[in-house]
Design goal:
Layout (H helix, E strand, L loop, with lengths): L2 H13 L4 H8 L3 H13 L3 E6 L2 E9 L1 H22 L4 H26 L4
Antiparallel strand pairs: 1-2
Length: 120
């Protein structure tokens, strides 16, 4: 799976159903590229398209249970990889990482705000 596909699934998991145009903007790709990507993920059963109850003209891309499961599995694999690697660090290196956690959390917040775009 491409990084853009995985990132799109994670965005849907984090923010809920989105329009293709919104997903394209968040992921930094063109709308036609996102349309093609959504089509492939839809054929794979990871996402589905649904109508928007608030605007019948709009179609939203939604994560399926298979898509949510994929995101959880991928995230857990990342956790296990970090656990293994952190286990190879010295005590001083682990302490340095713990001290850096507040700054890393702030970076995560900034990145999330940047990916979601301006508030409406």
């Amino acid at each position: 799976m491409s990084l853009t596909s995985a990132a799109t699934l994670a965005t849907l998991e984090r923010t809920g159903p989105r329009r293709i145009t919104d997903l394209a903007a968040v992921e930094g790709v063109t709308q036609p590229a996102m349309t093609a990507l959504v089509r492939v993920m839809e054929e794979s059963g990871l996402v589905e398209r649904r109508g928007d109850a608030s605007d019948k003209r709009v179609t939203l891309v939604c994560l399926t249970e298979a898509g949510a499961s994929y995101v959880r599995t991928r995230r857990q694999a990342g956790v296990h990889a970090f656990e293994r690697l952190i286990g190879e660090l010295t005590d001083d290196e682990v302490e340095a990482l713990v001290a850096a956690l507040p700054a890393l959390r702030h970076l995560e917040e900034l990145e999330s705000q940047d990916r979601e775009g301006p508030k409406r």
